[in-house]
């Protein structure tokens, strides 16, 4: 990931208008260009998307003619209180029950307009933002949380740059939740048995699927940097090009849809569960981060004269070290997420940092001064990309503004050190609720809503009896 932003690319985006809008695979300048964009593609239907707290696409599907006549749709505030199970927490102390069912106005972000290439008929999709009746952003909305953090950086004259790496598993279709997941059958007619990290032939087993993923991505203007086979059986990783945090979070949101939909067409499930299979590695959402000067695009982590690391670089690291426990429930948002974070695995259990040390929670990859960055290896692939990105940037921001000092880099194997991160969801939620600086920068209304959702999800989980309990307790206690 290069930390310097391309000035040419930025200027090209600003110049998008008129004919250029019609040719754009993703994003137009405004509603005035939408009609021509739809007409050029014969699109008659549009999916109006809103990412909720779990990163699930909520919204409405409507005819383009209706959408153009009234491009602002309504949805109830309650969508930002909905659990991954479809349930809702008690609204007591959070929001009035009447207000929860009161409509918000959902405004399309035209920069996200793109096609739905897997749809049977020509269809478009656009991500929306939530505003109140008087035009204020809805603070509980994940996109707004990330915007809020980005604005804190901008007020300091800084521009965050991120590059996500998304791991996921391909598995056989599984329609009975009582049965464990299994690797799918590849083109050879056999499932993958051993671990095939970085194997080209193991990726080639699913060439047809990945051709569709690349094709669909290109049609949506999504930029894949690299594709690799990870350590687990049929575990893959896709890396995205670096850029603006909100734009990259949008891309991860759309990529997850794309990968799932393409996989279904090949009678395969793609899962972003943090730990989908016993005995296999977990899946991560690693986030590379650097900060550039908003005026000249230079990496503020590197001294312009010596090329060495700056005090801001070490303070950014220190902020992530200090606040990782408090943001953990946004990086590992489900009970399953903590099954990935175990001792003696490649998933970190610590807040240590090191130079090219993948056993540390925070890794500084080898690079030149312009690309100096921090890779946060804690988030799991089940994380909402908007919230995970906002959380790690919030921690780094606090580190720089509080002028914190990082520990010395760790050079040894950190896999078997003591746990320095929460071991479970309720512990992580408590850390967030007790951290005033995180509540202040991310918004107290969001933190309250998110904590209530996570507690409700945990209560629902506790109603389920696991196979382990039946195996070891049924006849032994």
Folded structure, characterized:
There is one protein chain. Strands 7, 8, 9, 10, 11, 12, 13 and 14 form an 8-stranded mixed β-sheet that branches. Strands 1, 2, 3, 4, 5 and 6 form a 6-stranded mixed β-sheet that branches. The longest helix has 21 residues, at 245-265. The protein has helices spanning 7-14, 19-23, 31-41, 64-69, 97-100, 142-155, 200-204, 207-219, 245-265, 311-331, 337-340, 385-401, 425-433, 436-442, 444-461, 467-473, and strands at residues 45-51, 57-63, 73-76, 103-108, 114-115, 123-131, 158-171, 224-229, 235-240, 269-271, 285-293, 353-355, 362-364, 374-376. It has 16 helices and 14 strands. The protein starts with 6 loop residues before the first helix and ends with a helix. It has 477 residues and is α+β, with helices and mostly antiparallel strands. Residues 1-18 have low confidence and may be disordered. A hairpin with a 5-residue loop joins strand 1 and strand 2. Helix 8 (207-219) packs across helix 9 and helix 13 (425-433) runs antiparallel to helix 15.
Order of helices and strands: HHHEEHEHEEEHEHHEEHEEHHEEEHHHHH
Q: Given the structure, what is the number of helices?
A: 16
Could you describe the largest sheet, including whether it forms a barrel?
8 strands, mixed
* SSE class: alpha+beta
Tertiary shape: globular
Q: Spans of 5+ residues with little confidence (pLDDT < 50)?
A: 1-18
First and last CA, distance: 54 Å
Percent of sequence in beta strands: 15-25%
Instruction: Give the helix proportion (percent range).
Output: 25-40%
User: How many beta-strand runs?
Assistant: 14
Round the mean pLDDT to the nearest integer and report it: 92
Radius of gyration over alpha carbons? 22 Å
């Amino acid at each position: 990931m290069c930390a310097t932003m391309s000035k040419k690319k930025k200027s090209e985006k600003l110049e998008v208008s008129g004919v250029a809008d019609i040719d754009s695979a993703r994003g137009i300048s405004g509603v005035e260009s939408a009609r021509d964009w739809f007409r050029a593609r014969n699109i008659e239907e549009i999916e109006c998307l809103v990412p909720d707290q779990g990163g699930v696409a909520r919204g409405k599907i409507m005819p383009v003619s209706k959408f153009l006549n009234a491009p602002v749709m309504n949805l109830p505030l309650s969508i930002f209180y909905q659990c991954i199970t479809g349930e809702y927490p008690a609204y007591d102390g959070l929001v009035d029950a009447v207000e929860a069912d009161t409509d918000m106005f959902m405004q399309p972000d035209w920069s996200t307009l793109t096609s739905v290439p897997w749809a049977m008929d020509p269809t478009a999709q656009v991500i929306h933002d939530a505003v109140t009746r008087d035009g204020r952003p809805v603070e509980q909305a994940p996109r707004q949380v990330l915007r809020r953090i980005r604005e804190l950086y901008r007020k300091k004259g800084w521009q965050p740059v991120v590059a996500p790496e998304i791991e996921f598993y391909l598995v056989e279709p599984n329609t009975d939740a009582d049965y464990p997941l299994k690797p799918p059958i590849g083109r050879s007619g056999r499932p993958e048995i051993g671990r095939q990290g970085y194997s080209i032939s193991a990726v080639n087993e699913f060439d047809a699927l990945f051709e569709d993923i690349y094709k669909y991505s290109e049609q949506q203007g999504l930029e894949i940097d690299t594709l690799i086979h990870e350590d687990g059986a049929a575990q893959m990783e896709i890396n995205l090009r670096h850029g603006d945090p909100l734009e990259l979070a949008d891309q991860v949101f759309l990529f997850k849809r794309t990968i799932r939909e393409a996989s279904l067409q090949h009678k395969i499930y793609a899962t972003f569960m943090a730990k989908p299979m016993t005995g296999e590695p977990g899946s991560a959402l690693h986030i590379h981060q650097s900060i550039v000067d908003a005026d000249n695009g230079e990496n503020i982590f590197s001294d312009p004269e010596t090329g060495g690391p700056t005090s801001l670089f070490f303070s950014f690291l220190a902020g992530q070290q200090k606040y990782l426990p408090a943001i953990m429930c946004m990086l590992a948002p489900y009970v399953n997420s903590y099954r990935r974070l175990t001792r003696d695995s490649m998933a970190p259990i610590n807040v240590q940092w090191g130079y090219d040390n993948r056993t540390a929670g925070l890794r500084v990859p080898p690079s030149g001064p312009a690309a100096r960055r921090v890779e946060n290896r804690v988030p799991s692939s089940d994380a909402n990309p908007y919230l995970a990105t906002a959380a790690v940037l919030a921690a780094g921001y606090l580190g720089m503004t509080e002028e914190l000092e990082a520990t010395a880099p760790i050079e040894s194997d950190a896999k078997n050190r003591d746990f320095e991160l929460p071991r479970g969801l309720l512990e992580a939620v408590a850390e967030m609720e007790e951290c005033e600086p995180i509540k202040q920068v991310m918004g107290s209304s969001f933190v309250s809503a998110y904590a209530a959702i996570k507690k409700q999800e945990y209560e629902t989980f506790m109603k389920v009896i696991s196979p382990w309990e039946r195996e070891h307790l049924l006849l032994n206690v």
